[in-house]
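Good morning C.,

I know you're traveling, so I'll keep this short. The sequence:
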Amino acid sequence: MNVTTKRVLTQPVNFLAFGLGSGLAPKAPGTFGTLAAVPLFLLLSLLPFDLYIGFVIAASVLGIAICGYAADDLKVHDHPGIVWDEFVGFWITMIAVPVSFGTICLGFLLFRLFDILKPWPIKWADQQVGGGLGIMLDDILAGLMALGSVHLLIALFS
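The tokens, ready to paste straight into the viewer:
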């Protein structure tokens, strides 16, 4: 077991930052992190809207501290395995989206697209904002852009 894996599996904050371990995937940890967020989204989708929003806001604010701690502990800013930001970005993407296999796939694909391509202002945030806020902000923005896109596509094709 390498040092990073040991630190992730033995320190609760790192375990959360690494998306309950999903960020340890050797390839595409952001995609695996987003996949790991889906079952949690399905549970969260059972909450009333205001509680869902409250949870996502709390997860975002807490994520700043969680991701900042993990980055400092591992001494790597925005380590690829830190995927709590992908969890939150996906949950933002799915705000008020009717839950179905198709909408989950659409939200997943759009969020990953915006997170990977990083159009403005996502790229700006990724490059200019440091610490835990910087780790979280680009995925929050990607989630917001994906959220708007999902709702637009649902409206156009309904």
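Safe travels,
E.
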